[in-house]
Design a protein that fits this description.
Blueprint lengths: L1 H6 L1 H46 L6 E3 L12 E3 L1 E11 L5 E6 L12 E3 L5 E8 L4 E8 L4 E5 L5 E5 L7 E5 L12 E4 L11 E10 L6 E7 L8 E7 L2 H13 L1
Antiparallel strand pairs: 1-2, 3-4, 3-14, 4-7, 5-6, 5-14, 6-7, 8-9, 8-11, 9-10, 10-13, 11-12, 12-13
């Protein structure tokens, strides 16, 4: 092969052309792999940056004034901060679904922290941690209870999972005199010490009144498709312990 290629011009041209095609193909594949690795690094960096930006939103602040006074500058304190994480394991087809994140106690993750998606939708609540990983009680878990509010009319209730369609949850405890409309937006409420208020959960898909019941049965379409979730943000309420200690003291009396 060496002699044929070395001393025959036509065969040498064919060889060089073929080798260029092969090497070009290999370089293209290598470059594609390198770009993929770089994109992963860029995505991690953007997730961290977005976590910091979320901490600057108004619903991440504690308002010291009860009513907004236009004569004075409104004083805001930091209440919620965000930690970016990626999902390493996830289930959506069980009655009790959980997730595993690649962030744990060494990253500041603690049980009872809220977890949301990049779109802002509720994912769940931190259940347990190890130094580098944490498990999440998914919103698609029968023990999950998320305080929620209908934005248009202000009625409050709880988001529940009854093990049906993973794109749907139920809004409980809305009285039958409430004025409901299909498409009404459901947000987290101010009653929670885990989530900031005004985080979109989903929209009313269907609702009806069961005979003899004083409350609606409401089906809510989630803003999140948890089967496609990759990145999340873990929420740290810096004032949670103060609130919970005070509330526990009232319960004990």
């Amino acid at each position: 092969m060496y002699l044929v290629v070395q001393y025959n011009a036509n065969q040498r041209k064919i060889y060089l052309s073929s080798s260029n095609l092969v090497s070009g193909y290999l370089y293209t594949k290598y470059d594609g792999l390198a770009q993929y690795v770089r994109l992963s690094s860029v995505a991690d960096s953007l997730a961290e940056e977005n976590a910091m930006l979320r901490s600057e939103l108004k619903n991440a602040k504690f308002r010291e004034t009860v009513l907004r006074d236009t004569s004075d500058r409104e004083k805001l304190l930091q209440q919620f901060t965000y930690i970016a994480a990626s999902i390493k394991n996830n289930s959506i087809n069980r009655l009790n679904n959980t997730l595993t994140l690649n962030r744990g106690s060494t990253h500041g993750i603690k049980p009872r922290m809220g977890v949301i998606s990049p779109k802002g939708g509720v994912v769940g609540i931190i259940l347990d941690t190890s130094p580098r990983f944490s498990t999440v009680l998914s919103i698609l878990h029968k023990e999950s209870r998320i305080s929620a509010r209908i934005k248009r009319n202000g009625f409050h209730g709880s988001i529940l999972w009854k093990g049906n369609n993973p794109r749907h949850v139920q809004l409980d405890a809305i009285p039958k005199h409430a004025n409901l409309v299909v498409g009404d937006s459901i947000y987290t409420s101010s009653y929670s010490a885990i989530f900031p208020e005004e985080i979109l959960i989903g929209k009313i898909d269907t609702f009806w009144k069961e005979p003899g019941s004083n409350f609606y049965t409401i089906d809510v379409m989630l803003v999140n498709d948890l089967s496609r979730a990759k990145y999340v943000y873990v929420i740290d309420n810096l004032m949670k312990e103060e609130q919970l200690i005070l509330e526990e003291g009232v319960k004990d009396e």
